[in-house]
Specification:
Elements lengths: L3 E4 L20 E9 L2 E9 L6 E12 L2 E10 L3 H19 L29
Antiparallel strand pairs: 1-5, 2-3, 3-4, 4-5
């Protein structure tokens, strides 16, 4: 699903994915909800159509009013997990060290010993 206004069904998730038996969504095998102020993030592990492989969806949901949400979704496939996590750790570390060194980030692991260079990004030019 791409970003935009989405009307929610009765179980407060995406209208296209109705609950099946057991409370999970049709292709969802694991889910983690992260409330974050006005936004909620969902990290979902889903099966492919064949049922033989898995991928992640990361959804940002922001309530617009009582029955409308603004949603943005990222689909992340297994071959990209390493690059995605490495880049996420790198940019969060950069913000911690260079942009907001005096801010006390809550719930983050210690990233001070991590170092990423251009060799970590064979398909990319590396950090900018």
């Amino acid at each position: 699903m791409r970003g935009g206004n989405v009307e929610m069904d009765n179980d407060n998730r995406e209208g296209s994915e109705r609950r099946q038996d057991g409370g999970r969504y049709r292709d969802e095998v694991y889910s983690r909800r992260v409330p974050a102020g006005k936004r909620t993030y969902f990290f979902d592990v889903k099966t492919t159509r064949s049922g033989e492989d898995f991928f992640l969806t990361i959804t940002e949901s922001k309530r617009l009013d009582d029955d409308r949400y603004d949603k943005h979704k990222i689909f992340l496939y297994k071959e990209d997990f390493g690059k995605f996590v490495a880049a996420m750790l790198e940019v969060v570390g950069f913000v911690q060290e260079e942009c907001l060194p005096d801010y006390e980030f809550r719930g983050l692991p210690d990233l001070s010993n991590l170092h990423f260079g251009t060799d970590d990004y064979p398909d990319d030019a590396g950090p900018r």
